[in-house]
Amino acid sequence: MKWSELSDNWCPVARTLSVVGDRWTLLILRDCYLGKSKFEEFAESSGMTRHILAERLKRLVEEGVLERRLYSDAPKRYDYVLTEKGEELRPALRIMKDWGKKHMPVRREAKA
Amino acid sequence: MKWSELSDNWCPVARTLSVVGDRWTLLILRDCYLGKSKFEEFAESSGMTRHILAERLKRLVEEGVLERRLYSDAPKRYDYVLTEKGEELRPALRIMKDWGKKHMPVRREAKA
DNA sequence: CCCCTACGTTTTGTTTTGGAACTTATGACA
DNA sequence: TGTCATAAGTTCCAAAACAAAACGTAGGGG
Questions:
Q1: Which protein residue has its CA closest to C1' of D11?
Q2: What are B41-55's pLDDT values in tens digits?
Protein backbone atom coordinates (compact mmCIF):
# COMPACT_ATOMS: atom_id res chain seq x y z
CA MET A 1 0.00 0.00 0.00
CA LYS A 2 1.18 3.47 -0.80
CA TRP A 3 1.47 6.08 1.88
CA SER A 4 -0.62 8.51 -0.15
CA GLU A 5 -3.64 6.23 0.12
CA LEU A 6 -3.66 6.60 3.88
CA SER A 7 -5.67 9.82 3.96
CA ASP A 8 -8.89 7.85 3.62
CA ASN A 9 -8.05 5.07 5.98
CA TRP A 10 -10.74 4.03 8.46
CA CYS A 11 -8.34 4.80 11.30
CA PRO A 12 -8.09 8.39 12.49
CA VAL A 13 -4.49 7.85 13.57
CA ALA A 14 -3.61 6.79 10.04
CA ARG A 15 -5.37 9.83 8.59
CA THR A 16 -3.45 12.09 10.94
CA LEU A 17 -0.21 10.43 9.96
CA SER A 18 -0.99 10.94 6.29
CA VAL A 19 -0.34 14.62 7.00
CA VAL A 20 2.33 14.67 9.67
CA GLY A 21 3.67 11.11 9.75
CA ASP A 22 6.61 11.49 7.45
CA ARG A 23 10.19 12.40 8.05
CA TRP A 24 10.56 16.14 8.72
CA THR A 25 6.98 17.40 8.90
CA LEU A 26 6.71 17.23 12.67
CA LEU A 27 10.03 19.01 12.88
CA ILE A 28 8.50 21.93 11.01
CA LEU A 29 5.68 21.99 13.54
CA ARG A 30 8.19 21.89 16.37
CA ASP A 31 9.77 25.04 14.96
CA CYS A 32 6.37 26.67 14.68
CA TYR A 33 5.67 25.93 18.33
CA LEU A 34 9.02 27.54 19.12
CA GLY A 35 7.87 30.70 17.39
CA LYS A 36 9.57 30.31 14.04
CA SER A 37 7.66 31.15 10.89
CA LYS A 38 10.11 31.80 8.06
CA PHE A 39 11.39 29.51 5.36
CA GLU A 40 15.01 30.22 6.18
CA GLU A 41 14.40 29.68 9.88
CA PHE A 42 12.90 26.24 9.25
CA ALA A 43 15.67 25.34 6.84
CA GLU A 44 18.44 26.27 9.21
CA SER A 45 16.86 24.95 12.36
CA SER A 46 15.82 21.55 11.10
CA GLY A 47 18.64 20.89 8.67
CA MET A 48 16.28 19.60 6.02
CA THR A 49 16.83 20.47 2.37
CA ARG A 50 15.01 23.45 0.88
CA HIS A 51 13.47 21.15 -1.69
CA ILE A 52 11.73 18.99 0.87
CA LEU A 53 10.92 21.93 3.10
CA ALA A 54 9.05 23.70 0.31
CA GLU A 55 7.08 20.57 -0.45
CA ARG A 56 6.13 19.96 3.17
CA LEU A 57 5.10 23.56 3.76
CA LYS A 58 2.89 23.41 0.72
CA ARG A 59 1.21 20.29 1.99
CA LEU A 60 0.73 21.69 5.48
CA VAL A 61 -0.93 24.76 3.99
CA GLU A 62 -3.16 22.62 1.78
CA GLU A 63 -4.22 20.63 4.80
CA GLY A 64 -4.95 23.72 6.83
CA VAL A 65 -2.31 23.11 9.46
CA LEU A 66 -0.35 26.23 8.54
CA GLU A 67 -1.34 29.44 6.85
CA ARG A 68 0.84 31.16 4.25
CA ARG A 69 0.95 34.82 5.12
CA LEU A 70 2.26 37.80 3.17
CA TYR A 71 4.40 39.72 5.57
CA SER A 72 6.21 42.04 3.17
CA ASP A 73 4.85 43.66 0.06
CA ALA A 74 8.02 44.68 -1.69
CA PRO A 75 9.66 42.38 -2.15
CA LYS A 76 6.85 39.86 -1.73
CA ARG A 77 7.70 37.67 1.22
CA TYR A 78 5.63 34.94 2.78
CA ASP A 79 5.90 33.13 6.08
CA TYR A 80 3.94 30.37 7.75
CA VAL A 81 1.85 30.53 10.87
CA LEU A 82 -0.08 27.87 12.76
CA THR A 83 -3.82 27.65 12.35
CA GLU A 84 -6.04 26.50 15.19
CA LYS A 85 -5.92 23.05 13.60
CA GLY A 86 -2.16 23.18 13.75
CA GLU A 87 -2.14 24.38 17.33
CA GLU A 88 -4.11 21.34 18.37
CA LEU A 89 -1.20 19.03 17.61
CA ARG A 90 1.00 20.83 20.09
CA PRO A 91 0.24 18.40 22.94
CA ALA A 92 1.48 15.48 20.85
CA LEU A 93 4.81 17.22 20.31
CA ARG A 94 5.04 17.93 24.00
CA ILE A 95 4.73 14.24 24.76
CA MET A 96 7.43 13.47 22.20
CA LYS A 97 9.67 16.08 23.77
CA ASP A 98 9.29 14.52 27.22
CA TRP A 99 9.74 11.04 25.80
CA GLY A 100 12.89 12.07 24.00
CA LYS A 101 14.33 13.65 27.11
CA LYS A 102 13.64 10.56 29.14
CA HIS A 103 14.40 7.78 26.69
CA MET A 104 16.72 9.14 24.01
CA PRO A 105 19.89 10.51 25.55
CA VAL A 106 22.39 12.17 23.24
CA ARG A 107 25.26 9.82 22.52
CA ARG A 108 27.67 11.84 20.41
CA GLU A 109 28.03 15.56 19.93
CA ALA A 110 24.98 17.61 19.09
CA LYS A 111 24.99 18.88 15.55
CA ALA A 112 22.19 21.33 15.01
CA MET B 1 20.95 16.70 6.52
CA LYS B 2 20.25 13.01 6.60
CA TRP B 3 17.53 11.60 8.74
CA SER B 4 19.91 9.10 10.32
CA GLU B 5 21.89 11.93 11.89
CA LEU B 6 18.88 13.03 13.87
CA SER B 7 19.33 10.63 16.75
CA ASP B 8 21.94 12.92 18.28
CA ASN B 9 20.18 16.19 17.68
CA TRP B 10 20.07 18.66 20.55
CA CYS B 11 16.28 18.61 20.41
CA PRO B 12 14.47 15.81 22.23
CA VAL B 13 11.60 15.98 19.75
CA ALA B 14 14.03 15.34 16.92
CA ARG B 15 15.56 12.41 18.78
CA THR B 16 12.13 10.94 19.35
CA LEU B 17 11.32 11.36 15.69
CA SER B 18 14.51 9.60 14.70
CA VAL B 19 12.80 6.46 16.00
CA VAL B 20 9.12 6.93 15.26
CA GLY B 21 8.99 9.86 12.87
CA ASP B 22 8.95 8.03 9.61
CA ARG B 23 6.15 6.71 7.50
CA TRP B 24 4.66 3.53 9.01
CA THR B 25 6.38 3.22 12.38
CA LEU B 26 3.66 4.91 14.38
CA LEU B 27 1.15 2.71 12.62
CA ILE B 28 2.92 -0.32 14.04
CA LEU B 29 2.64 1.22 17.49
CA ARG B 30 -1.04 1.91 16.92
CA ASP B 31 -1.52 -1.79 16.23
CA CYS B 32 0.38 -2.65 19.38
CA TYR B 33 -1.89 -0.42 21.42
CA LEU B 34 -4.83 -2.24 19.85
CA GLY B 35 -3.45 -5.51 21.14
CA LYS B 36 -1.77 -6.85 18.04
CA SER B 37 1.65 -8.42 18.31
CA LYS B 38 2.26 -10.63 15.28
CA PHE B 39 4.06 -9.89 12.04
CA GLU B 40 1.12 -10.98 9.93
CA GLU B 41 -1.28 -8.91 12.01
CA PHE B 42 0.79 -5.78 11.49
CA ALA B 43 1.19 -6.49 7.81
CA GLU B 44 -2.51 -6.98 7.21
CA SER B 45 -3.74 -4.21 9.45
CA SER B 46 -1.45 -1.44 8.28
CA GLY B 47 -1.12 -2.40 4.63
CA MET B 48 2.61 -1.83 4.64
CA THR B 49 4.92 -4.16 2.78
CA ARG B 50 6.55 -7.02 4.64
CA HIS B 51 9.91 -5.68 3.59
CA ILE B 52 9.45 -2.36 5.38
CA LEU B 53 7.61 -3.93 8.27
CA ALA B 54 10.53 -6.23 9.03
CA GLU B 55 12.94 -3.32 8.96
CA ARG B 56 10.82 -1.15 11.22
CA LEU B 57 10.25 -3.92 13.75
CA LYS B 58 13.97 -4.52 13.90
CA ARG B 59 14.62 -0.89 14.58
CA LEU B 60 11.91 -0.65 17.25
CA VAL B 61 13.43 -3.64 19.01
CA GLU B 62 16.92 -2.14 18.79
CA GLU B 63 15.61 1.06 20.32
CA GLY B 64 13.84 -0.76 23.12
CA VAL B 65 10.34 0.27 22.11
CA LEU B 66 9.26 -3.29 21.39
CA GLU B 67 10.51 -6.62 22.61
CA ARG B 68 10.86 -9.63 20.33
CA ARG B 69 9.41 -12.60 22.12
CA LEU B 70 9.52 -16.30 21.30
CA TYR B 71 5.95 -17.49 21.56
CA SER B 72 6.27 -20.88 19.90
CA ASP B 73 9.16 -23.32 20.07
CA ALA B 74 8.38 -25.55 17.16
CA PRO B 75 8.25 -23.99 14.74
CA LYS B 76 10.16 -21.02 16.13
CA ARG B 77 7.81 -18.06 16.07
CA TYR B 78 8.41 -14.59 17.38
CA ASP B 79 6.05 -11.74 18.08
CA TYR B 80 6.46 -8.21 19.32
CA VAL B 81 5.26 -6.66 22.55
CA LEU B 82 5.48 -3.15 23.92
CA THR B 83 8.07 -2.33 26.53
CA GLU B 84 7.41 0.30 29.18
CA LYS B 85 9.29 2.72 26.93
CA GLY B 86 6.90 1.88 24.13
CA GLU B 87 3.87 2.22 26.37
CA GLU B 88 4.85 5.75 27.19
CA LEU B 89 4.19 6.92 23.65
CA ARG B 90 0.58 5.85 23.88
CA PRO B 91 -0.70 9.31 24.89
CA ALA B 92 0.80 10.82 21.74
CA LEU B 93 -1.12 8.38 19.59
CA ARG B 94 -4.28 9.15 21.51
CA ILE B 95 -3.90 12.81 20.64
CA MET B 96 -3.38 11.94 17.00
CA LYS B 97 -6.48 9.77 17.08
CA ASP B 98 -8.60 12.61 18.44
CA TRP B 99 -7.04 15.06 16.01
CA GLY B 100 -7.75 12.77 13.09
CA LYS B 101 -11.35 12.31 14.13
CA LYS B 102 -11.86 16.03 14.43
CA HIS B 103 -9.84 17.37 11.52
CA MET B 104 -9.43 14.62 8.96
CA PRO B 105 -12.81 13.34 7.82
CA VAL B 106 -12.85 10.42 5.42
CA ARG B 107 -13.53 11.64 1.90
CA ARG B 108 -13.76 8.50 -0.20
CA GLU B 109 -14.37 4.89 0.77
CA ALA B 110 -12.33 3.35 3.53
CA LYS B 111 -9.87 0.80 2.26
CA ALA B 112 -8.24 -1.02 5.14
C1' DC C 1 26.37 48.27 -11.19
C1' DC C 2 27.09 44.55 -8.04
C1' DC C 3 26.28 42.23 -3.91
C1' DC C 4 22.93 40.96 -0.17
C1' DT C 5 18.47 38.96 1.62
C1' DA C 6 14.88 35.63 1.42
C1' DC C 7 11.58 32.47 -0.67
C1' DG C 8 11.65 29.28 -3.29
C1' DT C 9 12.77 25.86 -8.00
C1' DT C 10 15.74 22.93 -10.78
C1' DT C 11 19.05 19.49 -11.53
C1' DT C 12 21.61 15.31 -10.73
C1' DG C 13 22.76 11.31 -8.48
C1' DT C 14 21.83 8.29 -4.38
C1' DT C 15 18.72 6.00 -1.13
C1' DT C 16 14.37 4.24 0.19
C1' DT C 17 10.18 2.22 -0.85
C1' DG C 18 6.49 -0.79 -3.13
C1' DG C 19 5.14 -5.06 -4.98
C1' DA C 20 5.57 -9.55 -5.63
C1' DA C 21 7.87 -13.85 -5.39
C1' DC C 22 10.64 -16.80 -2.62
C1' DT C 23 12.51 -19.28 1.84
C1' DT C 24 12.32 -21.99 6.06
C1' DA C 25 10.38 -24.78 9.51
C1' DT C 26 6.53 -27.26 11.04
C1' DG C 27 1.80 -29.22 11.49
C1' DA C 28 -2.36 -31.22 9.36
C1' DC C 29 -4.55 -34.00 6.21
C1' DA C 30 -5.20 -37.97 3.23
C1' DT D 1 4.64 -40.29 1.86
C1' DG D 2 3.34 -36.25 -0.59
C1' DT D 3 0.82 -31.93 -0.74
C1' DC D 4 -1.18 -27.96 1.44
C1' DA D 5 -1.40 -24.44 5.00
C1' DT D 6 0.73 -21.20 8.41
C1' DA D 7 3.81 -17.63 9.90
C1' DA D 8 7.94 -14.95 10.00
C1' DG D 9 10.73 -13.23 7.48
C1' DT D 10 14.21 -12.34 2.86
C1' DT D 11 15.31 -11.22 -1.91
C1' DC D 12 14.80 -8.90 -6.25
C1' DC D 13 13.90 -5.03 -9.20
C1' DA D 14 11.59 -0.88 -10.76
C1' DA D 15 9.59 3.36 -9.10
C1' DA D 16 9.45 7.06 -5.98
C1' DA D 17 11.53 10.01 -2.57
C1' DC D 18 15.41 12.33 -1.00
C1' DA D 19 20.15 15.09 -0.42
C1' DA D 20 23.15 18.41 -2.02
C1' DA D 21 24.13 22.14 -4.44
C1' DA D 22 23.28 25.45 -8.01
C1' DC D 23 20.05 28.53 -9.94
C1' DG D 24 15.94 31.94 -10.18
C1' DT D 25 13.53 36.17 -8.78
C1' DA D 26 12.45 40.46 -6.85
C1' DG D 27 13.71 43.98 -4.45
C1' DG D 28 17.33 47.05 -1.17
C1' DG D 29 21.77 49.21 -0.09
C1' DG D 30 26.27 50.99 -1.13
A1: B51
A2: 999 999 999 999 999
